Please model this.
Amino acid sequence: MQQDPAGMAPEDLSHAGSVVDKAIEYMMEQKIAPISIASALLGGALGLLARTMDDRAIAGVLRNALASVESGELNEARQHPPQA
Model:
């Protein structure tokens, strides 16, 4: 999603991202359908957000994600898909 040009992301974000990337890589190797992987990750993320934020804050996170899609920020991911 949005890049972090100002360096404002928490220190552990990179670590968490690496763990998620490895989990996705593993699931792809297991021939799990990409939509199933994405749905499971999104469901897990929403569950975590629901346990740690109120609905208004969650809606803000989702609006930011939608803005990233609508602005074309995710086009680079389509142009450079991960190697399975």
